[in-house]
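ok so heres the complex, two chains, lmk if somethin looks off
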Amino acid sequence: MEKLLVLTHVDEYGVALTRASLEAVAAGVEFAGALGAALAIGIVGAATDAAAQQVAGAGSRVLCVAGEAFAQARYASDAAACEALCRAAEATIVFAPSGSRFSRVVPGVAYRLGGFADTHITALTMGETLEATRWFYRQRVEAVVRRERRPWFLLLEAGTREPYTASAAAVQTETVAVTLPALRTNVQGLRAPKQDEQTIRPGAKVLFVAGAGWTKKQADGQIHAAEAETLILGFLRAADASLGSSKSLVDQSGENQAVLKFMTHLNQIGQTGATPRHAKGLSTCCHGEEPHVVGWRFINERRAISMDPNCGWARGKADVVYVADAFKVIAKVNALLAEKK
Amino acid sequence: MTSRFHIVVCASIVPDPLQTLEPAAGAGAPTLKNEMMLPAVLDPWAAAALYEAADLAAKHPGSKVFLVSLGPKAKLQQVMMTVAQKVPFELVAIDGPLGGFTDAHSTAAALAAAIAAIPGLERERLLLFGGWESASRGAGVTMQVVGERLGIVDQFQGVDQITVNEDGGFEVLERVEGGRHQVSVCAGAPAVLGWATGNLPEPRNSPQVGMANMRGIMPALQKAKNTKLDANGLSYVSVSLPRQQRETRLVRDMPEDEIAREIVAWIAE
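and the predicted structre for the whole thing:
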């Protein structure tokens, strides 16, 4: 019989489980039933009592690793915690959320336990056995995989299912002891990039992607980087949108070309950047070639503004392409959005 | 600064991002159609790791950079002709299969064995660099497992910056959710750093660097051991290209006011 463990962790405020953790719990409840597996939920955090209440009614053992050392998202302590939880649960299948904290440690934990990890899982199904869907070649090839060998660790992508909702049932927790190695790393905290305001908003409905065209010479033969900055930031504020960028635009900052000061590599979308999940995406001044578009795999509705009617977006990659000057269009969009507010 | 490092960069080779990819059936695992014919490049995130390694080595005299790469010899040779002109390094080549459908744990085992066998490698000075994911498998598994196999438990992923302190310790910036960085301070090597893009542009080609590198690259390729990668129980139920061709509405000659109204209405939907 399979034994399924869901690894979860407390959020950066130290109180509740992350949303991605609760999504993994929901997957655990569903597939423990389908597999006929015993379910356990493991929680890692400085304090886990409040978080444990969030998995009430899951019908599982609740195993906790708690202590000040686990307040930090640090490889050595997190790997030791996850290893201890897996051993305590005698897990043969492990689900974990694909956030930065567990993506850092789960492959190493799998190795310690003689197991194997598959990551970026976007869907789980029951065929003859458990099957997992993931992308290869930066979202260009989709595959469904199985593993015969155990333990099998699956890192589940966030945003692919509804989070678990707790019932009012009482939760019995079990504390799992962890032997920590010498800790040589100390987490100092979180730092936002040097920019005037937050431009990356994972929860935003709209992704606004700026391409290198914003810093190229315009019809008057001049570069209008300052105006571009004003327009883009204006749109982000008015539409509460998240900002993405093509690689070519963020690379310009290292090549002494005209730059948008708030743009960093963290904004990069595509082949060497992020693949965010938003309901809508608006591309501006970007060619829409394949290396850009692989980052749009999880953007449902796509529109683009481009001066080039033959750009990549027009070849079946966007729903609508406006052949127009993005400077003029975004100025008018911003004015309309300001009126509505 | 007195610190010197032995920086080992793990880097795979991947199809040029502009190529059209089509999966095909292979012996055991899937493959890409005409995979050996596709132009290849050094994996972009691993390339960022290599440039950061070279920059760090240049700032810390006495440091060495090793590039460990697994792939078919012919492909490695082709890619190294270009990469060799970028920064100084010593190649450790492993002759093995190409592609994203191989198992990350087997790849890690092959890399770790090759690293452990590097003559003169000083483990207490070891910084193990690589991309945090590849552009082929994209798993984000290999570096952690190589680190574990080498007994390294100070690991960082999604790294954009390393700043070495006077005492040999260093500060690392790792990408976390919400467009932020987690700031950590590590007491020093050994450590694993899986790089995101870093902060350095691609170096210009240098024929002098290329000539110096090539003196070591050809012997390294000749010495490359052939390695088979175990599937570790991984099997593929299906492999397919996404069929997401959209019916694009191309809007020409629409006044900007009207476009703006349409976009605002669409955002509000």
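quick notes: The first strand of chain A starts at residue 3 and ends at 9. thats all i got rn
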